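Quick one, probably user error.
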């Protein structure tokens, strides 16, 4: 074998080894890995924890996986309530929510598993005055990750309405530190959005957007605007014009998976024939597609 070919072979072997090592060690374990938790218990799903952020006492619930294993890095999934709602409603599936937005039921066979976090907004909303809710959610993240084992490459956020606006804002503020968001009928404005979000707003975040075409509360134009921020930031092909949306009265939803995005940062847009709801149901269907689509989007990242 010539020196040249041998050299090429070694380079190729090294590349394959590095690739497979990355496959094995892709997780970025949080400081809570390998430690016995001192703060978070199974009871934290029903009795909120508190921390002080921006001089205010703030509350959050944490749902650990069954058989929590402190040597295994889990996903961290924020589930944010809407205006007038509470984190407790999200945890129990009352007030119009599915429990934790319906994700744990669908994620039963997920090999990665998840730590779910439901924080309370101020005045039952997420106005994020002066960035205080971003700071709070960062503090929650840090507190949780110090105590339990989380994969820092697998942080997610979802929510409906104000909780969607805040998930979008969190993606703008933290950029790649958030793996993906599912923004259900949100707004680019009410929680601050990407305006003034700093350098994070130029970073890609995998993005699932869902919005009713007849939403009278937070108009679909805002949903398209948030989507288009990540279409641009994730390098997707937007050259073919806006994606198809369902006709009014069709009772359906139309899902668009954007082409050309950075493969690590896909964008999906799901427009439905309906108004302001976290759980749209197609005519003739018995269950919402919302949770299924959210989980399908999140679970592709491992
Ligand atoms: C999990 O796997 C079991 C066994 O294959 C299956 O019966 C069940 O439907 C799965 N659950 C979910 C939520 O996918």
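Nope, works fine. Designed sequence:
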């Amino acid at each position: 074998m010539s020196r040249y070919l041998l050299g090429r072979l070694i380079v190729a072997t090294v590349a394959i080894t590095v690739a497979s090592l990355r496959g094995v060690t892709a997780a970025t374990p949080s400081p809570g890995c390998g430690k016995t938790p001192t703060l978070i218990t199974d009871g934290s799903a029903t009795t909120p924890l508190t921390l002080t952020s921006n001089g205010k006492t703030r509350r959050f619930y944490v749902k650990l996986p069954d058989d929590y294993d402190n040597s295994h890095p889990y996903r961290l999934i924020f589930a944010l309530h809407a205006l007038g709602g509470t984190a407790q409603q999200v945890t129990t599936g009352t007030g119009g929510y599915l429990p934790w937005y319906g994700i744990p039921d669908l994620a039963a066979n997920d090999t990665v598993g998840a730590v779910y976090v439901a924080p309370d907004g101020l005045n039952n909303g997420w106005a994020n005055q002066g960035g205080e809710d971003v700071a709070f959610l960062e503090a929650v993240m840090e507190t949780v990750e110090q105590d339990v084992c989380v994969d820092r490459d697998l942080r997610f956020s979802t929510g409906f309405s104000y909780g969607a606006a805040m998930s979008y804002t969190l993606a703008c503020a933290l950029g790649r530190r958030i793996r993906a968001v599912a923004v259900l009928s949100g707004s680019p404005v009410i929680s601050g959005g990407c305006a003034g979000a700093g350098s994070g707003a130029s970073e890609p975040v995998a993005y699932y957007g869902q919005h009713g075409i007849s939403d009278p509360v937070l108009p679909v134009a805002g949903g398209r605007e948030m989507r288009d921020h990540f279409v641009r930031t994730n390098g997707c092909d937007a050259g073919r014009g806006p994606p198809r949306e369902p006709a009014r009265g069709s009772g359906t939803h139309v899902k668009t998976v954007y082409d050309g995005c950075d493969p690590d940062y896909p964008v999906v847009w799901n427009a439905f024939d309906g108004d302001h709801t976290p759980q749209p149901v197609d005519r003739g269907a018995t269950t919402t597609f919302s949770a299924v689509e959210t989980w399908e989007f999140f679970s592709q990242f491992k």
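The helical segments are 3-24, 87-92, 103-106, 132-147, 162-174, 220-233, 290-299.
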